[in-house]
Every structure is written in C-alpha cells, then in structure tokens.
Amino acid sequence: MKRKFDTIIFDLGGVLVDWNPRYLYRKIFKTEAEIDWFLENICTPEWNEQQDAGRSFEAATEELVLQYPDHEHAIRAWYGRWDETIQGSIPQTVEILREIKQNNGHRLYALTNWSHETFPWALKNFDFLHWFEGIVVSGEEKTRKPFPEFYQILFDRYQVQPKRTIFIDDNLKNVEAGKMMGMETIHFQSPHALHASLRELGIL
C-alpha cells in the first residue's frame, strides 16, 4: 500500500537557491586550483557550518584572520561580499514548488542550514520563500542538519508527522538523517530528477 503524504519539506541552498562560494572567489583568485586550496584549507565547509549553527560572522572571520593573516582579504570577502556567492534561484525547482503550492494542497516547509545574519537578505530577495507555511533556519535555532534535534524542531513546531512527509535535500548526509527520522526522502540532484521522483510518489 502506498504511503499517503500531506507535507513536503524543502532544503534551500543547492535545491531552490543557487549558492556556491566559487561564484565569489572566481573574482578574487586566478585559477580553480587556488580556489580549491582556499576552500579546502581556510574557509572550509566545517568552518562555514559553525556559522550555520549560530556563530557570528565577526567571530568566525577574526578567528581565521588571526590564523591566516596572509589571506585576510579573501577571508573577509566571504561575509563582506556574501551576496556574490548567490547566483539567484534555481528556476526549474521554483516551478516545481509553484506547481505543488497551486495544485496539490500539501503543507510546504523549508528546513535550511543558513546563518541567521544573512537569511533576512534571502527573504527580501526570493519571493518564493514566502510560499512556505514555515521555515526553520539553523542559525536561529543554534543547531543544524544532520542533527536529529533540528528536524525535530520543525516536527514539533508545525505538528508534522514524519511518516506522512517527503524531505528533499542535496546533501546526502542530511537525506540519510531525514530517513532515520522516518520521512520519505529525495536526494536532490537536478530539477528534472526531482520532478520524476515526485511524480512516482504521486505528488505531481
């Protein structure tokens, strides 16, 4: 018997929002190899995750500048020019969201690893963020995916039943954690593949 779903939870960055620090650092460094080294050794994903979990930009930046003074300009650019890390929306996924919103009657939420300092910018710049019934932002909650308590915040706040929920994320660790929480999950890889998966599940 097919599961019945009444709720869909979207990740934002990499699914609906085209965020990539390379968009910024291609303006600062001359080669992809230089960017690779910088993102693997200085402004690393692990460092960025701490801001997603609530650490201030100022504290994060000053810590790295002390450690790597020769890279001060590039380090300060991460937050000083943060809006240049976003290319815009991912239009085909936004259209999928629009179709669900207009035609399906499913409850729509977002669960995002995003700093509380930059999320207000996103709310001003992306109208589709206002289509959700609720958005849970890691920087505001001081925890993040893939930690179970972060998913639980959304479940509790909006009375969401995991077994009746589909969760979409581009990060496999987050997808696996969502599955452990009892949700049907989709590992986002492209809008086309997402549309096919949602069609198979009877959503589109």
Account of the 3D structure:
It is a single chain. The chain contains eleven helices and seven strands. The chain has 204 residues and is of the alpha/beta class. The chain folds into two domains: 7-16 and 90-200, 3-Layer(aba) Sandwich (Rossmann fold), CATH 3.40.50; 20-86. The strands form two sheets. A five-stranded parallel sheet has the order 5-4-1-6-7. The protein has a two-stranded antiparallel ribbon with strand order 2-3. α10 (172-180) links the parallel β6 and β7 (184-187). α4 (57-67) packs antiparallel against α5 (72-80). The chain starts with 6 loop residues before the first strand and ends with a helix. The mean pLDDT is 96.
